[in-house]
């Protein structure tokens, strides 16, 4: 029963996010056409929308209204999508397939992929800054947190460490630090911004949401590594087995397959524990922790 | 006499901007070292700092305080620098020399150049969002204007049009529209944010500053084209004659050299006229219009 209610909630949010992205991306009829078309090509019609789902789940818990959540979800997803576009470029991971379709530099060209990513990042900040119903002081805080999560002490920093780690044997602690920046920072800010869409947060609430985010962030990466080692490209919608082929350190290469699966399960429990102070109300955040660990793609 | 006072004001602002960038960029000792080192390599120690100078000049006129102006100037310069780093990459202009030193993808590698640009853009928003002495509603407006100027209906949009114009013969109107986005949007927002560092602006004031910015934005580009056609690489600190070699439409290719010089002079007068409502106080903005037209590099 809960599973079914969760699935229909998730489906509803994913449709809402699609509508919100459509509304918050520049129209393809606006100049420059090709850039806008390419931004829409990569941002619309695909992806699990994990970050938007986290924002909506936290928004539910803290009473965020629908139109603010739609913008918050669009903003975090745009940052995520831009990072994928740049990450797929030949000078980075050189990947041809993403979310089951050709990557931007393949469907268009490299220069367009570069600009699409750059413009999506700016668009994310614009979508968040354009909200006109939030208390401005809280909105400035949200913009600051998004910038921090996206930048060199967050996502970009994690990618830089990732890049420099190819061929190195990282310790588990080093691997964890990299992923806390590369993926964890944006997952965490998705939760926090979703909550802030509703109201100001106490230090205790911020800490509990932070602990939840840390656990699901790591779980997300552990499961990614497990899937990369065990699933096939068609299921993943991207090239499987890339990490081993690229000689990248992963949880599977450091801990082994079974211990990695056990770690994911342990992190799922930690995520649930972090939500204890919020009681029954944190239903969707708990469901998402389960989803992140149990997903097959 | 005025020239000398202006020159020492300019020198003082440039030193202040260098200090501000140094303070507002992540330290190279913070992880990830290479990324932070490369961000500092490209952002520090070079450049005419035209956008920061415009922000300070407008800030002077509207009473902006020094610490807010330092952050506004850092933010607009970081956006500018990130655009240069990405623009110089092999998939764009493929340039080896910038501000008299090797470009980031030459001094480091392409992947680092990509991440340096991405991280500098996020850092720009963070530096602006981190100001804690502005009325939050005005600060949200400033963040919104910066995002708009940097994104697909501003700088990135202009670069996309530029990219698609190689080998085409643009009309003067099309060329003007491209430059209004590519360079004009960031010059304009530098002026507006500098003014907003001081106080809220009336619609009339916003319009006058917009007219000034439009004139100097176009003048800036016309002069760029003239210099690209007439100066040498050592003077420019970047490869001269690139536009013709790349078959890019320029004012010189459309209007010819002498009419381009006359146009620049006419735009300088228009910039002065736009400042008339502000009287003597707009001294530094007038000086900068003169500088933009009369510069040799």
TrEMBL record, chains A, B:
<keyword id="KW-0808">Transferase</keyword>
<dbReference type="InterPro" id="IPR008949">
    <property type="entry name" value="Isoprenoid_synthase_dom_sf"/>
</dbReference>
<dbReference type="InterPro" id="IPR053378">
    <property type="entry name" value="Prenyl_diphosphate_synthase"/>
</dbReference>
<comment type="similarity">
    <text>Belongs to the FPP/GGPP synthase family.</text>
</comment>
<dbReference type="GO" id="GO:0046872">
    <property type="term" value="F:metal ion binding"/>
</dbReference>
<keyword id="KW-0414">Isoprene biosynthesis</keyword>
<dbReference type="InterPro" id="IPR000092">
    <property type="entry name" value="Polyprenyl_synt"/>
</dbReference>
<keyword id="KW-0460">Magnesium</keyword>
<dbReference type="InterPro" id="IPR033749">
    <property type="entry name" value="Polyprenyl_synt_CS"/>
</dbReference>
<dbReference type="GO" id="GO:0016114">
    <property type="term" value="P:terpenoid biosynthetic process"/>
</dbReference>
<protein>
    <submittedName>
        <fullName>Polyprenyl synthetase family protein</fullName>
    </submittedName>
</protein>
<dbReference type="GO" id="GO:0004659">
    <property type="term" value="F:prenyltransferase activity"/>
</dbReference>
<dbReference type="Pfam" id="PF00348">
    <property type="entry name" value="polyprenyl_synt"/>
</dbReference>
<keyword id="KW-0479">Metal-binding</keyword>
<dbReference type="GO" id="GO:0005737">
    <property type="term" value="C:cytoplasm"/>
</dbReference>
């Amino acid at each position: 029963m809960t599973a079914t209610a969760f699935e229909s909630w998730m489906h509803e949010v994913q449709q809402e996010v699609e509508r919100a992205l459509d509304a918050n991306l520049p129209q393809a009829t606006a100049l420059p056409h090709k850039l806008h078309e390419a931004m829409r090509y990569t941002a619309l019609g695909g992806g699990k929308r994990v970050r938007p789902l986290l924002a909506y789940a936290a928004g539910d818990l803290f009473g965020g209204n629908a139109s603010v959540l739609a913008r918050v979800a669009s903003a975090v997803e745009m940052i995520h999508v831009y990072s994928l576009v740049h990450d797929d470029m030949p000078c980075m991971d050189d990947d041809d397939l993403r979310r089951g379709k050709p990557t931007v530099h393949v469907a268009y060209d490299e220069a367009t992929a570069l600009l699409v990513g750059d413009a999506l990042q700016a668009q994310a900040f614009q979508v968040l800054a354009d909200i006109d119903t939030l208390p401005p002081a809280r909105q400035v805080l949200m913009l600051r947190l998004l910038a921090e999560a996206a930048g060199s002490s967050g996502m970009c920093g994690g990618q830089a460490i990732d890049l420099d780690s190819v061929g190195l044997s990282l310790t588990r602690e080093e691997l964890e630090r990299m992923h806390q920046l590369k993926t964890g920072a944006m997952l965490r800010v998705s939760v926090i911004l979703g909550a802030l869409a509703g109201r100001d947060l106490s230090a205790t609430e911020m800490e509990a949401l932070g602990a939840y985010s840390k656990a699901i962030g790591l779980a997300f990466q552990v499961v990614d590594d497990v899937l990369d080692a065990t699933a096939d490209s068609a299921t993943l919608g991207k090239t499987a087995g890339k990490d081993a082929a690229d000689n990248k350190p992963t949880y599977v290469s450091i801990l082994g397959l079974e211990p990695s699966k056990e770690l994911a399960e342990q992190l799922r429990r930690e995520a649930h524990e972090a939500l204890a102070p919020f009681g029954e109300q944190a239903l969707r955040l708990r469901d998402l922790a389960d989803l992140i660990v149990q997903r097959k793609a």
